[in-house]
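W.,

You were right to be curious about this one. When I first looked at the sequence I had no strong expectations either way, so I just let the prediction run and decided to look at it fresh. Below is the sequence, 410 residues in total, followed by the output.
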Amino acid sequence: MVLHEAKLEPTATGPLDGIRVLDLSRIVAGNMLSMQLADFGAEVIKIEDPDGGDPLRDVRVKGISVYWKVYARNKKSVAVDLRKDEGRKLLLALLDTAHVLVENFRPGTLEDMDLAPDALHARNPGLVIVRISGFGQDGPYRTRPGLGTLAEAMSGFGAKNGYVGEPPLLPSVPLADMVAGLYGSSAVLMALRHREVRSGGGQTIDLPLLDPLLSILGPEAAVYRLTGKVSARTGSRSDAVGPRNVFRTLDNRWIALSTSTQAMAERLFRTIGRPEMINDPRFRTNSQRVANADACEAPVANFISERTLAEVMNTFEAADVAAAPVYEVDQLIADPHVIAREIMVEFPDEQMGTLPMHAIVPRLSDTPGRYSRPAPKLGEHTVEVLTQVGYDTARVEQLARSGVIRLVES
């Protein structure tokens, strides 16, 4: 089976057509945020250091910047040295034409560069400024390094993962950055909507990595207040519903199972040939099933262990029991549902021919996202963008000779 190939449409428009975003951020959170906007038509211009650009470019696999290629799709690159006066003047010229600025410097850095939000709003009253940091623009931890790992640890997320008696488990992907990026793109649209509909001005969005990740833990604090107990780590189990876990099949595969409703639990017990469990006082209600998880899961595990993954999935699907295989990435991209819905696409790539990556999310019926261009080379659009704000050829060449800008990656 072959993944659908994404078709590049450089002139196609989207619902955010006409919105110009200057992205000064580095690594994942800001790139996740601006990728969402770029996928739906915003002109996203990455403002990068001429000496190497966004450090995400250096996260390579077999010499290829795969992370950059995924998160920088549909964007442009302008390479400007903001440490130089001429570089900051150039940035201000671009900001005069922008609707959104995204940055993730350590709090106080914009102010040290004479680019504080108040000054920027004085020049461009409608500018939406997104300030990404580890812990926010105020508070005692504001100057700590803004790394997602720290947020994943402090938010309570790490403590929730793993098994009793074993170390807490941090995610193997930059989850805090990704969650913040998604919150951030939503916040940008709210701010633009306010400006458009209520004739409001621009505003500043304080977007730490800590707060969004904490928010996805739901009622953890409320549960603690009610019980006086900190939730123990439960591995793949849930302390809210049961049974819920992963189980090994006869052919050494894994299947995930969840019974989030009473009817689902009852269907499961009937399907595995144990209808008496429905009225067993240990398993009659969800709370009782969670409290007696070992005993509740044992017959489920036995049933699954005696059958192959295909046999279990066929049985459970026929009985409308909620289950899914635990995929490795090679199994994911070969799944017929993933292929049919084009959840993954082959994106055109200069080095690899095509590069598999996730498709645009979410899907809009009338104004869908579009693929306009692959991730840019460092400085690829410097001339194009500077020309738009009044820099002539001689001026651009002079700035390049002085090291203020970089014209294109060699």
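Here's what jumped out at me. The first helix runs from residue 29 to 39. And, maybe more interesting for your project: The first strand starts at residue 4 and ends at 5.

Coffee later to discuss?

I.
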